[in-house]
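[job 4471] stage=fold_predict status=RUNNING
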Amino acid sequence: METRDIVFSVIMVISAFILTYQWLGRFGESSKNPLIIFAAIVMVGSLAVLILSIITRLRNIEQMMEAKERSLRINIQSVEDNLDKRIGDVQNSVNNAMDELNRKKYR
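[job 4471] inference complete, writing structure tokens
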């Protein structure tokens, strides 16, 4: 979690408090129920935590995918090297067989 994310979460909670307090104040002083204000703060705080949790999970998934991509690239490179070696071996044996056939043909 970055500091920026935490700062934005705190701003969300503070703005929810101010918004709820001011909104309830429009209906008169008697309607400023602290329970409603507290519920709004808890709701926005839980929303902020949920968003931060989702961001953290997405970063973890991204890191796992990058690791798998790296290992896949390494495996593909290994397979490519093995195929190059095998093709080289087959090519050498075919060339040797062709040379031997050409020698027998010209004898």
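[job 4471] summary: The longest helix spans residues 34-106.
[job 4471] exit 0
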